[in-house]
Design brief:
Number of strands: 10
Order of helices and strands: EEEEEEEEEHHEHHHHHHH
Radius of gyration: 19 Å
Number of helices: 9
Largest sheet: 5 strands, antiparallel
Oligomer: single chain
């Protein structure tokens, strides 16, 4: 399926019987589940296993190509959501299939094409830096949701924790045990993923830096490069 969004978009809850690969050929796609958020900038894809309840969102224009894969041919593919890099060969295969619609397994050429796509996906390494895991405890989740709604919020953890009904030590423990990240790391990951979305929607580097809570553009550029391997400017031009 091929879809182009010209304005911000948010789906309702989705759940599919088949596995799904959502490829962002332009713009930035966010896939949200109860466990976290997976952000795919251009030339990345989000893998969503069959049966996983999720929502799809984009803050600006985006072109998305979605492939649905029957469970019977996906034994070697991830059993959890993941952000995957899409190399040129797989990109062309995705675009080809999205234009030709469903592949027919009774046709040898089309069956081989499906097998090549599955083989290519199986070789990809998940991009951990583009995943924001969510805590489950209601107190830590309250903090996480508050910061998601206000990514530029600079309140100290003590204030955020007090509002959620937890102590600082409890909040720190919950974030580390339930997301695998210290609170400060989680907060920075949130800011940088939101920044990635806003840059993808056309916001400039300076505006983005201040909107996601950085005190200086240089600090933002340094953090972005450290997390994603490119500067915000290089990312926006890609």
């Amino acid at each position: 399926m091929a879809v182009r969004f010209t304005t911000p978009y948010a789906s309702g809850e989705l759940r599919h019987d088949w596995h799904k690969l959502c490829y962002a050929s332009a713009g930035v796609l966010r896939v949200v589940t109860p466990e976290g958020a997976w952000v795919a900038p251009p030339h990345r894809a989000v893998w969503v296993p069959a049966g996983v309840a999720h929502r799809e969102e984009t803050r600006g224009g985006a072109s998305v190509r979605s492939l649905y894969l029957a469970s019977a041919i996906c034994g070697a593919l991830p059993s959890v959501c993941a952000v995957l890099n899409v190399p040129p060969l797989l990109r062309e295969l995705i675009l080809e299939v999205a234009e030709t619609s469903a592949l027919d397994a009774t046709q040898p050429t089309q069956r081989r094409l499906a097998e090549i796509i599955v083989d290519r996906i199986a070789l990809l390494e998940p991009k951990a830096s583009q995943v924001l895991p969510m805590p489950r405890d209601r107190r830590a989740l309250s903090i996480a949701q508050h910061l998601q709604s206000e990514p530029g919020n600079n309140e100290p953890l003590a204030m955020l924790a007090r509002r959620s009904g937890a102590s600082v030590r409890t909040a720190q423990r919950l974030f580390l045990s339930e997301t695998g990240m210290a609170f400060a790391q989680w907060r920075q990951r949130l800011r940088l993923l939101v920044a990635m979305e806003r840059l993808g929607a056309g916001l400039n580097v300076t505006q983005t830096a201040f909107e996601v809570g950085y005190a200086s553009v240089s600090a933002f550029v340094s953090a972005f490069r450290c997390e994603f391997g490119v500067t915000p400017g290089q990312y926006a031009e890609s």
